[in-house]
Amino acid sequence: MADYLLTQKDAEQEEGARLALLEEVFAEHTARQFDAIGVGEGWNCVDVGAGAGAATSLLAQRVGPTGSVLSLDRDVRLLEPLAGGPIEVRRLDLLTEPLPGTFDLVHARNLLMHLPARSEVLRHLAAALRPGGWLALCEPDFTTVSILRESSAWRRTWSAFCDATIAGGWDPGYGARLLNDVQALELGEVHAEVVTAYRPGGSAPARLFAGTLERLSARMRELGADGDDLAATQHMLSDPGITYRMATITKVWAQRPG
Fold it and tell me: How far apart are CA 69 and CA 106, in angstroms?
């Protein structure tokens, strides 16, 4: 597996800020997904690839003192302050280690797009469900991202973004395939919701994408991106006068038969 492009190593503050924006963009979608599933008091949950732990904290509020939330990531520096009460934080590499136990809910958000052998990883996640347990996933499709203003600088930057993510092991369009891959698990009851939205420059989704571009800028330059194009794109993303179409979000939740 290629090194994770958005690693916290030597960039903990920058990645923490980006993850805070990600939480601002995704919080409502995650809460609605948990509402639809009915996550509640006493549930035993695992949050895989938990990042800075926003979904972990939301789960902890819902399961209460009689439930538990296992928060997993390859890098747990941003998660460690959350440990205590119903939350246990543990370092785990999903590609080489199995999930420790079985759960009422297995949750992963913006994770599978970064991983090779996604179908195999999905099977491992599903295998960790108790009878009647729920798999809850959320993945973006970046191929819908656009700025509704004619700009060659944007087009060149967008192409360089795709080159850098694909070279780094991402599938920037994975969200569009998520439902198909979950259906192939044959879990039983499957639900899905697809969300797309247009927002002005300077909004949280635009700033999130700008922050992701900034984190990837060195890799993009290595692949031929132009510094002036990157600067022009950052300016557009901060301009309230432009319209930004954010990545399409696909949420899927499926229940293992009881």
Answer: 10
CATH of the domain at 190: 3.40.50.150
- CA dist., res. 109 & res. 105, Å (int): 13
Residue 5 maps to a domain: no
Eight-class DSSP state of 197: -
Task: Count up the domains in the chain and report the number.
Answer: 1
Segment 13-36, tens digit of pLDDT: 777 787 788 888 888 999 999 999
Residue 112's nearest CA partner among 163, 167, 169 is 169
In a domain, 4, yes or no: no
> In 142-207, at which residue ranges do the beta strands (DSSP E only) sit?
146-147, 189-195, 198-200
pLDDT in tens, 188-203: 899 999 999 999 999 9
Q: How many CB atoms lie within 10 A of CB 17?
A: 16
